[in-house]
Amino acid sequence: MAVTIKSAREIELMREAGRILEKVHEEMEKAVRPGISTKDIDLLGEELIRSFGCIPSFLGYNGYPASICVSVNDEVVHGIPDKHHIIQEGDIVSLDAGVIYKGYQSDAARTHAVGEISQEARQLIDVTKQSFFEGIKYARAGHHLHEISAAIADYAESFGYGVVRDLVGHGIGKEMHEDPQIPNFRQKRRGILLQPGMTLAIEPMINAGRYDVAWLDDDWTVVTDDGSLSAHYENTVLITDGDPEIFTLSK
Ligand code: MF3
Ligand code: CO
């Protein structure tokens, strides 16, 4: 499938899908406290998404059984919410969510600290977030896609972290996953030329240890192979004539 260029109307709908998802994340963050189950976070997220008249895009996607991915500590992404999994002080909790508004999608992820966390965990969360901002310095018309990948990787790897290779970012629009794929690690090719109207979900997944990951027997949950902590940060971004517009981060 070719990379699509969104029309002004499509951009406006995706902007609204992004604004809504930003609010959903803000509300979910407040709920991430010791004692809450990962299932309760999912139920809250679904309720919030529906309260804005949106559809949770993850629910039923390839059979995924929930609306929010809740990935704790060494879980990288796609953690399945479970009423028996109770969040503890010191955990780091990655929340990934997507909404569909009038047929258009947004996708964003954040990693939150629960109470007091280790210095190591704090740095991992901060570097993962900053790696996204290093990447989007190149999310501009006239640059090539893999300049984003290289900037994310160079920044994260300078801290000795492992940049996950088995999962990548993606184009987004009517579908959650559109072309192009957006790796977070250095590529041999320079990738497509970025053009105004492209909408991209850029999502570094960074491990404190090695980059290798494994899948649990639930066929969804991705964990670090070496048991190290992992963080995730994702926004839905529009390429413009100037600075990129981050639909899921208006402030
Ligand atoms: N946000 C994820 C991504 O960027 C998708 C979650 S997979 C799902 O690819 F099954 F939960 F939808
Ligand atoms: Co995504």
UniProtKB/TrEMBL annotation:
Residues engaged in binding substrate: H78, H177
Boundaries of every Peptidase M24 domain copy: 12-241
One GO CC term, this protein: cytosol
Cofactor dependence: Co(2+); Zn(2+); Mn(2+); Fe(2+)
GO molecular function: initiator methionyl aminopeptidase activity; metal ion binding; metalloaminopeptidase activity
The keyword DNA repair is annotated on this UniProt entry: no
Stretches assigned to coiled coil: none
Listed SUPFAM superfamilies: Creatinase/aminopeptidase
Residues spanning the signal sequence: none
Pfam families documented for this protein: Peptidase_M24
InterPro entries xrefs: Creatinase/aminopeptidase-like, Pept_M24, Pept_M24_MAP, Pept_M24A_MAP1
UniProt-listed GO biological process terms: proteolysis
Binding site for a divalent metal cation 1: D96, D107, E234
Catalytic activity: Release of N-terminal amino acids, preferentially methionine, from peptides and arylamides
Leading EC class: hydrolase
Enzyme Commission number(s) from the entry: 3.4.11.18
Keywords annotated in UniProt: Aminopeptidase, Hydrolase, Metal-binding, Protease
Cofactor stoichiometry and binding remark: Binds 2 divalent metal cations per subunit. Has a high-affinity and a low affinity metal-binding site. The true nature of the physiological cofactor is under debate. The enzyme is active with cobalt, zinc, manganese or divalent iron ions. Most likely, methionine aminopeptidases function as mononuclear Fe(2+)-metalloproteases under physiological conditions, and the catalytically relevant metal-binding site has been assigned to the histidine-containing high-affinity site.
Ligand binding (a divalent metal cation 2): D107, H170, E203, E234
Quaternary structure and partners: Monomer.
Matches recorded under HAMAP family: MetAP_1
Its biological purpose: Removes the N-terminal methionine from nascent proteins. The N-terminal methionine is often cleaved when the second residue in the primary sequence is small and uncharged (Met-Ala-, Cys, Gly, Pro, Ser, Thr, or Val). Requires deformylation of the N(alpha)-formylated initiator methionine before it can be hydrolyzed.
Protein family per UniProt: Belongs to the peptidase M24A family. Methionine aminopeptidase type 1 subfamily.
Protein name: Methionine aminopeptidase
Provenance organism: Diplocloster agilis
Gene that produces this protein: map
